[in-house]
Amino acid sequence: MKVGWLIAGGAAVIVALVLALLFSGAAGPRQLGDPGPLTRWGLPTAKALNNISVAAVIGSLVFAVMILPRRVSPTHRRSDAGKPGEEHPAFSAVMTLASVAAVSWTLSAVGVLLFTYSDAAGLPLSSDPGYTEGLASYLTDFDTGRAWLSTVMIAAVVATMTFGARSSGWLALTGILSLIGLMPMALIGHSSSGDDHYAAINSIALHLVGVCLWIGGITVLAVIGGRLGSLTPSVLRRFSALAGFAFILVVFSGVINASLRIDNLGQLGSEWGLLVTFKTIATLLLGGIGLMHRQWIIPQLGGGTGSLTGGQLSARRVLWQLIAVELLIMGAVSGVAVALARTAPPVSDEIAPDASPARILTGYELPPELTGARWLTEWRFDWLWVTFAAVVAVAYISGVVKLRRRGDTWSLLRLTCWLIGLALLTYITSGPLAVYGMVLFSSHMVGHMALTMVVPLFLVLGAPVTLALKALTPRGDGSRGIREWILVIVHSRASALVTHPLFAAANFAGSIVIFYYSPLFGFAMREHVGHELMYVHFLITGYIFVLSMLGSDPVPRRAPYPLRILLLFATMAFHAFFGVALMGSTSLLQASWFGNMGRDWGPSALEDQQLGGALTWGIGEIPTLLVAIGVAIMWSRDDARESKRTDRAADRNNNADLTAYNNMFASLAERDNRRGPGTPGPGKPAPSQKPDRPGARE
Questions:
Q1: What long-range pairs does 593-600 form, CB within 8 A, spacing at least 24?
Q2: pTM to 2 decimals?
Q3: CA 215 to each of CA 223, 239, 247: distance values in angstroms, whole numbers, following the listed order
Q4: CB 437 within 8 A of CB 390
Q5: Is 87 helix (H, G, I), strand (E, B) or coil?
Q6: What's the CA gap between 151 and 161, in Å, rounded?
């Protein structure tokens, strides 16, 4: 373990934090409600420790789940790897780091929680009963208090799991939970209010994910560098690809978030702007170092087996020196980032006292009246889904290019369907349907039905899983990459359950009623997390249903064609019933939301809801009917293929099956002839005998 490097990186965090706080004045005493120097300096210090800890946790779990093998493989030829079958020393070191960092994350989150209340209340830390009661109220009644309490609980669970979990499945769940632990951090602070707060929250969430993958990965490399042995080149190549993605994510999300905090470029000269400029320059410098790793150093490391040449030894030495430099720069950037979060941005985050009802409810001003042209012009980018669409589009195209370079073919129609599906997904989540779906129930229902019926149809026809399995190279060192995890998921019990035709159809049809006639609808409209989860649920539910009907990607079980047709018509009837129920409804769903929007154009809220029911009926039937036609065509083609197969088999064996069938009847006839016309067959009474009848008289 490069202990000195970690200490140097921690020192860089503290030095940069202190200098940035002094520069911005964020740690200075307040004239009113000053919590004291302990809180003023303790809060940013605890936040810095919290940020570094959660990054180390996420980085460690990513390495354990997707980069490192758990056990020593016979292909590991170096003696420093240990005996085949034993736990790899690099994996052991990573899990130790994950446990230590998770405990640190939990304790630092507790510190942030306590200091945050002290700072918000303007009171020094105290054990007085009144102070304790105020703290309890803060944890239950205020968003910031609830967010940090959630972080503490998630961190504690992650810490517990890192001590006990060792299987890949449980470690993957632990890693997902640690990523969820970033959400409370994204929902508070400068991102929780102000103009376009949804974009601010999404951009900071993406930023946190990118930073944790990047900083956490560099921290892991510093810890396990001497334990990789023959894995060094392959591990560095895998992390280099991940770091490149993280770099793009950090820069992209940072630019978006910064643009929301300023009105003009001149404001970059403020204390807040100068700190952002320092972060940007340092991030670009780190990106340049990462490019050196990928283009110059890693290719010189060779395959990692056998004795090392002088050039390889020199490349390894430079590699670890650059990693040490990266740790120092990242430490400085982390310290500045904490100070930046304590510095007020040029654009105020506060909502005006005379804000309109739509601004108070949705966070945005009421959009103009919906006209034909505005179905194309009104956009509000949801950066989570824009990022998702861009990433999977690039990945799909890269897979197609890789196949064609290898000499394999891939259908242009599949590629087109995939890109059309992603374009529609972006339109639904960021275009007019998203803008007006916040204020018009009818627009919301159009977006819902398109997201769960139209988009999945194109995505399923793209066959992304089949492409991934063909394009990705299998690993031979015992670790699990994307291809291995796809196979694990496809063959898992959970996949067998959710893709079962009956379950998929019931979930597809039934969840619409559960969602709209329960508090889930209100949660999705009022809370940003609920809104994004709503999109996820609609998309995945529709994708699984369409996949079970006509997809070509592998699934554990497919229904016979008659059952598919039956299920499709059943869902059509269910959507029709739901749409008709909305059309005839006289009570408003989520009246406190759609009824209090202050809208002075368009139909009334109830009339708009009834219109939404009609659109639900119409939009739900057409895609389902198209899927039914597709299933019928597949059924017909499958029967034709089966007939051809049977005919070819008959030609090969001279109709052996038909001959055997005819011979069976010929032998039965010959046996009956030998018995004679009066001989009873097996199980039949002789003609002179009468079968017993209940109650027959003798």
A1: 593/361, 593/522, 593/525, 593/526, 594/439, 594/440, 594/441, 596/357, 596/361, 597/357, 597/358, 597/361, 597/362, 597/366, 597/439, 598/356, 598/357, 598/358, 598/366, 599/358, 599/366, 599/439
A2: 0.85
A3: 13, 11, 10
A4: no
A5: strand
A6: 15
- Residue 242 CB neighbour total at 10 angstroms: 18
Predicted pLDDT of residue 350? 66
In whole angstroms, how far apart are CA 163 and each of 71, 101, 171? 18, 11, 11
Dihedral angle sign, alpha carbons of residues 227, 231, 237, 241: negative
Amino acid at 608: D
581: tokens are 């129920």
Q: Mean pLDDT in each 10-residue stretch from start to end of the chain (698 residues)? A: 63 77 75 83 89 94 93 62 75 93 95 91 83 88 90 95 90 94 80 68 91 90 80 85 91 88 81 85 84 70 52 61 76 82 74 78 88 90 94 96 92 96 96 93 93 94 94 88 92 90 89 91 91 94 92 86 88 87 89 89 92 87 84 79 61 61 69 61 48 43
175 near 157, Cβ under 8 Å?
Answer: no
Pairwise CA distance, residues 337 & 275, whole Å: 8
Contact, 193 vs 351, CB < 8 A?
Answer: yes
**Distance from C-alpha of 211 to C-alpha of 186, rounded to nearest angstrom:** 13
pLDDT number for residue 3 = 60
CA-to-CA dists, residue 697 to 553, 691, 692, 694, angstroms: 70, 12, 10, 9
Q: How far apart are CA 669 and CA 423, in angstroms?
A: 68
Say what the pLDDT of residue 189 is.
Answer: 57
DSSP 598: -
The pLDDT score that the predictor gives to residue 697 is 39
What secondary structure, in 3-state letters, does 611-651 show? Answer: HHHHHHHHHHHHHHHHHHHHHHHHHHHHHHHHHHHHHHHHH
Residue 60 in tokens: 């460690």
Q: CA-based Rg of the chain, rounded to a whole angstrom?
A: 32
pLDDT of residue 689: 47
Is 529 in contact with 150 (CB distance < 8 Å)? no
User: Looking at residue 328, what is its pLDDT?
Assistant: 80
Question: DSSP string of 132-146?
Answer: HHHHHHHHHHSHHHH
Residues 6+ apart with CB under 8 A from 14: 45, 48, 335
DSSP assignment of 410-467 equals --HHHHHHHHHHHHHHHHHHHSHHHHHHTT-HHHHHHHHHIIIIIHHHHHHHT-HHHH
- Cβ neighbours around 412 below 10 Å, total: 9
Question: DSSP assignment of 527-550, as one string?
Answer: -HHHHHHHHHHHHHHHHHHHHHHH
